[in-house]
Specification:
Layout (H helix, E strand, L loop, with lengths): L1 H11 L5 E2 L9 E3 H10 L12 E10 L2 E14 L6 E5 L3 E6 L3 E3 L8 H22 L1
Antiparallel strand pairs: 1-6, 2-5, 3-4, 4-5, 4-6, 6-7
Helix pairs in contact: 2-3
InterPro entries: Uncharacterised_YugN-like, YugN-like_sf
Organism: Geobacillus proteiniphilus
Keywords: Aminoacyl-tRNA synthetase, Ligase
């Protein structure tokens, strides 16, 4: 029952997230294998967080205030994620805090340390820079 309530809570909070807007990543398109390489080099993990149409990359941060995850999501506009060829369109990156045993919360009520937000902004700038290199 607790996990169902946690899932419901997460779903209800789904529209209220700590977003990193205007990073230049939103609406970027990139081929999946190249995106996988870039994200892995920058410390993101895709693991099993995908389906045929969507991908999710997470980078974990453990700081004094807790465990946080920077998440970059995208969806296939061509191909399928499982085929290793897909053209992915990126969404706005988000930051969430992990609560044991319920999972990660992305709500407006979360406190995000300014040093962590700066680290995330720097990593997202690196992602953007790497994407620009492959577009040249």
């Amino acid at each position: 029952m607790i996990s169902c309530l946690a899932l419901l809570h997460t779903v209800l909070l789904g529209g209220r997230k700590m977003k990193f807007e205007n990073t230049g990543l939103e609406n970027q398109t990139v081929e999946l294998s190249r995106l996988d390489d870039i994200m892995e080099r920058l410390g993101f993990v895709r693991a099993a967080q995908w389906d045929y149409e969507r991908v999710t990359y997470d980078r974990k941060y453990v700081v004094k205030e807790g465990t946080y995850y920077l998440r970059v999501q995208g969806y296939a506009i061509e191909g399928d994620v499982d085929s290793r060829y897909a053209l992915i369109k990126l969404l706005t990156p988000i930051l969430g805090k992990h609560y044991y045993p319920h999972g990660v919360e992305y709500g407006d009520d979360e406190h995000f340390p300014s040093s962590l937000v700066s680290q995330c902004q720097n990593v997202l700038a690196q992602v953007k820079s790497e994407l620009e290199k492959i577009k040249e």
